[in-house]
Amino acid sequence: MDGFTKATVIKYEVENCGYLIRLENEQLLAPDSLPKDFEKNNYDVWIKFQYPKKQQTSTCMAGKNIKLIEIAIRKKS
Questions:
Q1: Choice between 19 and 17, residue whose per-residue pLDDT is larger
Q2: What is the Cα Rg of the chain in Å?
Q3: Residues 69 and 48 sit within 8 Å (Cβ to Cβ)
Q4: Cα(76)–Cα(53) distance, integer angstroms
Q5: How many structural domains are present in the chain?
Q6: What global pTM score does this model have?
Q7: Strands 43-50 and 28-31: what pairing?
Q8: Over 90: is that where the pLDDT of 40 sits?
Q9: In the structure, what pLDDT confidence band is assigned to residue 77 with cuts at 50, 70 and 90?
Q10: CATH number of the CATH domain containing 44
Q11: Cα–Cα distance between 41 and 55 in angstroms, integer?
């Protein structure tokens, strides 16, 4: 999909992390918000996102904070 990045939503089992997004290069992202419909472990998705100009400190130290712009289901081929 044009302008989208392949990713997978994962349930991160570390306290205060919840759901993160893993890119194909294994980088973890912490979205500012994730729609409830996408809160599923190992859920393949397409995402559009931006890194904020200033990274905010969060209780989850596992991934880079991102502003999630758009998310869509990615069907396996």
A1: 19
A2: 12
A3: yes
A4: 33
A5: 1
A6: 0.88
A7: unpaired
A8: yes
A9: low
A10: 2.40.50.500
A11: 25
